[in-house]
Amino acid sequence: MSQLNPPVSTDDHAAGPEDAPVTLVEYGDYECPYCGMAYPVLKALQEALGSRLRFVFRNFPLTEAHPHASRAAAFAEAAASIGKFWEAHDMLYEHQDALDDRSLLAYGHALGLDRAVVLAAFEGAYDEKIRRDFRGGLRSGVNGTPCLFINGQRYDGPVDLDTLVDTIERLGDSYA
Amino acid sequence: MDQQHSGTALAPGQTAPDFTLPATPDQNLSLSDLKGAPVILAFYPADWSPVCGDQMALYNEVLPEFRHFGAQLVGISTDGVWCHSAFAAERKLHFPLLADFEPKGGVARAYGVYRAHEGTSERALFVIDAAGKIAWSHVSPVGINPGADGILGALDEMAAHSPSTGAAS
């Protein structure tokens, strides 16, 4: 029932072709353990579906429950400014146990991101974009993380590779 | 399966029954104290159960959006005050949790959302306008976190119809 609003736009971080038959949007929090568990599944899904899938990530940090979620999101947005959003995204999910400021600065260094840019991100340079993602998620019916939308419809099924591939292939067929 | 319960929830247009419940071990909160601004009543079955935790954690993050409408959020369950205070402290909740503990579920009954068999309330949401009328209500399946889109939609609508009670801040 719940529909993605706003729809995917150039404002979003997207991997995969714009005209892919299926777009999967994840609302995620870098410190959320369930998002951490979904991360390898969604990676495998991208690999399995190749150019048939466009994957979009939107921020939904639960900052009261996860003290590092907000700065981790800011860090990934800062990385996007040098075209390295997905590298940052992957790095964060692969190091969920180390998301403190010092670790984030070290990841920034590894990505070739200026220390000043990361610090500016910590100070709120990307807060508006993050908040916009969050608000859009609320309006779209996001009720926790990770929350997935497949071609604009909220997906409430299990986050495992087989079920996701099945669901998406059925959708893809109907678009073909 | 929950029909006989959810069918009885008070509907939009009805006056929200007033109540006074403990918000902390030594403080009570009355619905009438909150008159003049929209109120969101979030009935939930229990502190600590996974879905409720997520739902309350989500609402905790949505408080700035609710505040934008001048709306006050209150959580209500049949748990006692000490249980609520431990739960709120552990989850860092920044809104009151009311204890509908004695008489048990009295307020949930008044709103038509008591589950007598379980001794808990339904997972039910009521958005009440500044004049104390129910503007929107929703009962979710107990295991499903209803999110915040319904509440925000109701607040939008309310603000559109009576700008004076709406998003001044």
TrEMBL record, chain A:
Origin species: Ancylobacter tetraedralis
Name under which the protein is recorded: Protein-disulfide isomerase
Homology family: Belongs to the thioredoxin family. DsbA subfamily.
Keyword annotations from UniProtKB, A to Z: Disulfide bond, Isomerase, Oxidoreductase, Redox-active center, Signal
GO molecular function: isomerase activity; oxidoreductase activity
Protein task: May be required for disulfide bond formation in some proteins.
Highest taxon in the source lineage: Bacteria
Pfam families with a match to the protein in the record: Thioredoxin_4 (PF13462)
Thioredoxin domain location: 1-173
UniProtKB/TrEMBL annotation, chain B:
GO molecular-function terms, A-Z: antioxidant activity; oxidoreductase activity
Pfam assignment, any one: AhpC-TSA
Gene3D superfamilies attached to this UniProt entry: Glutaredoxin (3.40.30.10)
Span list, region Disordered: 1-22
Domain of life of the organism encoding this protein: Bacteria
Keyword Oxidoreductase: yes
Active site: 52 (cysteine sulfenic acid (-soh) intermediate)
Keywords: Oxidoreductase, Redox-active center
Domain Thioredoxin: from-to ranges: 10-160
PANTHER family per record: THIOL PEROXIDASE
Name under which the protein is recorded: Peroxiredoxin
